[in-house]
Amino acid sequence: MRSRLSRLGLWLWVWAVLFFLFAPIVTIILFGFDRSNVETWPIQHWTTHWYSVAWNDPQVRSAFVLSIKAAVVATALSLVLGSVAAFGVHKARFFGRDSISLLLILPLALPGIITGVALNSAFQWAGITLSIWTIIVGHTTFCIVVIYNNVIARLRRTSNTLLEASADLGANTVQTFRLVTFPTIATALVSGALLAFALSFDEVIVTTFTAGAQNTLPIWIFGAIRLGQQLPEVNVVVTMVVILMFIPILIAARLTGTENFAPRVAAAGKSD
Amino acid sequence: MYRDTRMSRCDVRGMMTNQPAIDIRGVAKSFGPTTVLHDINLEVFDGEFFTMLGPSGSGKTTLLRMVAGFETPDRGEILLHGEEVTQRPAHLRPVNTVFQDYALFPHMDVVTNVEYGLRVAGVKRGVRRERANAALTMVRLEGFSERRPAQLSGGQRQRVALARAIVNEPSVLLLDEPLGAGAYVTIIWRTVLLAVLVTLTDAIVAFPFAYVMARVATQRTQRILLGAVLLPLWASYLAKVYAWISILEKGGALNWTFSKLGLPDPNLGFTNGAMWIAFCYIWLPYMIVPIYGSLERIPASLLDASADLGGSSWSTFRRVILPLALPGLLAGSIFTFSLTLGDYVTPLLIGGSNSTLIGNAIYENLLTGGNLPLAAALSTVPIVIMIVYLTIAKRLGAFEAL
Known about the structure:
The complex is a heterodimer.
Chain A: H1 2-31, H2 49-55, H3 58-91, H4 97-109, H5 112-126, H6 132-157, H7 160-168, H8 173-202, H9 205-210, H10 217-227, H11 231-256, H12 258-269
Helix pairs in contact in A: 1-11, 2-11, 3-6, 3-8, 3-10, 4-6, 6-8, 6-12, 7-8, 8-11
Chain B: H1 2-15, E1 22-31, E2 34-44, H2 60-68, E3 75-80, E4 83-84, E5 95-98, H3 110-120, H4 125-138, H5 154-166, E6 172-175, H6 183-216, H7 219-234, H8 237-248, H9 253-260, H10 272-296, H11 300-308, H12 313-342, H13 345-350, H14 358-368, H15 372-395
Parallel strand pairs in B: 5-6
Antiparallel strand pairs in B: 1-2, 1-3, 3-4
Helix pairs in contact in B: 3-4, 3-5, 4-5, 6-10, 6-12, 7-10, 8-10, 10-12, 11-12, 12-15, 14-15
């Protein structure tokens, strides 16, 4: 009897948490269809007008394009750097290896503002003007971690005897990499890249410190909310961002399977 | 703040005189060889709340001091409500200032400080006491009248300074960087306290949920629940903050729900409470996932063994499940704690006037104040806190659960 009661309590708790998790997201999507300029609950009149306003807004468009560009380049850079780092740490045994693996994880545990301040000071000190490239460098710092984590997890699960078998059967190092190593880590790379893209696309904290006059989409949203301007448009843009981010995430989850993927995702998501 | 300015500009301009409350015309000022200000022109109208931002040393304080009458410009003139006051001494101007260091008289108690302006203007004792107490009530410091400034916190001193300035009903109120020194200690404490509060709340909310996911639900439900946690985790950060602004503000769903239930409006919009809710919401998935991970790894045989040895479900929970889930709990707390510690976007967007966190202080000093050394010094605070936290967490095995 008591256990049945506690079980009921637990499930009630689960439902309450689910409500807490999803009510805000649903609210924001609904407000995108609110005809009124001023948000008031409950919504009285419905419209899709704000979608066309946002679609035709040149500021939103250019911010969107910049965000996509920055995310693509940052993802590409971190694919190279992150996987090389993962191979290095996994394969080689060298002095300071443990410190390097800690250094690679550290950005996960440090607040994003620290990365932002550090980069901003470094750019100022080196006399580099802030541009799309400084945004990309900023985004790469945390995207690398996602790729690194994904690849090294896969490498750790790949048995060493596979590579030995390949060598035993007469394949040289390059052939082994092309025919065995790369195919085994391919899905990890793809899912890592998708997560990195999503992270970069949504990033605001590091970006404020590394962007000059340019607006990425999150910076545009941040500014609009802060100034209390174009709020109906913000609802629409924010809804689109949520949907756009879900696509790569769902594909990534498909590719690697949620089981081993979840805790890493949490770690990766840290950087936003 | 921006909203207020624009509204008052439209409302006031049409109705009142066209004369600006403050009119600065071609003002220049040098100290020795360095020119601090050259050719400043500025109009501020009645009812406007005007903010000047600029790097330290850019002359904000100098300009304020010229309006107040502590400095005279080398060139140009200053008009208050159309009256030329460029050469008029400070005590003859209808201007009161809240100083950067508050400048409270240490040898007078709070109420004597506040009534000072009225006293030197010759207002009778009874009247000025009454007005001073009214001003103190306005800044919510009733009951503090007998205290000395040294017995007050930074925030309370600031409010006394504000009361002392407004009690004279000046036509212009100047506030010189109300976020002065000393306020930083308050900010650090507030940030750490909030991070602890958010972490504890998330741990309490997350644990039963993660427990059901890991040990009660069927495999199918488990998958669905995991997806239900991961989707909000990856929903855009700004979308989540903005959603809570919409829910908590005056016309939002929360006030609506409360009024339907016949309860008074909670009016949580733009308060520290709003900030707490938003943070708990945004970081909750980061807490659920690692706890779930560590709970799921507990072999069922351990729980059976505990039951077999006579442990009730409660003592199994307390002596077996909880200790084994601790690394996951700690791993989650690293996220919730560190993320709250360094955030400045959420406090800026959903917080109120008292919601400044370390992140905001860093952001302001770096981007709007240009005070790089101070920003760097402030940045070391979260780093040091996180290093201590990580060392403890590592010792307790949290890293394996990451």
